[in-house]
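forwarding from the other thread:

> can someone predict this with SN-glycerol-3-phosphate?

sure thing
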Amino acid sequence: TPDVRPLVAGNWKMNGTGESLDELRMIVNRPNSAIGEKIDALICVPATLVFRAAQSVEGEALSIGGQDCHFKKSGAHTGDISAEMLKDAGASHVIVGHSERRTDHGETDAVVNAKAKAGWDAGLVAIICVGETEAQRKAGSTLDVISTQLAGSIPDNANARNTIIAYEPVWAIGTGLTPTADDVQQVHASIRAALEKRFAADGGKMRILYGGSVKPANAVELLGVANVDGALVGGASLKAADFLAICEAY
Ligand code: G3P
């Protein structure tokens, strides 16, 4: 999208211990990378690493995010983590509604919506994920599914500063499969149209990331598609060299 600064975001999922912090240092220490110049970069680490990750890249052009938060501020929710806790630990962003959360934890659009609001209340940018399953794609219902997820998962007060959308076709996650550039273009155009209809000018500026098997080898093609304002990268974000190579698409 013209006049939208791209964001390349990593999602480490349930991977990483203290020694993985070296990868973050390698990212910020790469000379002449696009990060901080042409693009923004973010790594969403496991909750256990947010504090150390944020400390180890303090002052650098790499933001640290969480991968989920509870929709409530605090209380009797053993094992859960609030948005305020992520913020306090040094996160600036939080992913909500990732398909793995929707599947593994039965998160509905309403829950995702509440989590996005909880993120905002704590001062975090919410990265709201949507995407169709393989069966839905085969049934030809991709655009309907995405439109329903967007309508339900994005709270009313979303704007281009507090919200980022990530389109992740479920069948493309961790599989090495990706949609064609034409398919990505079609879905991103429909997301853009829905955002503009609902949020007017802000909808035109809200970042729409593509996620699902983004690798150095396909980054130039996928990130060059209209209305693709960056990537949400899983597996290839675990190694600094791969993440940096994806950033070099810009
Ligand atoms: O959130 C990113 C993700 O779901 C994509 O994972 O491993 O296919 O890049 P991967």
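The chain has one domain: 7-247. thats all i got for now
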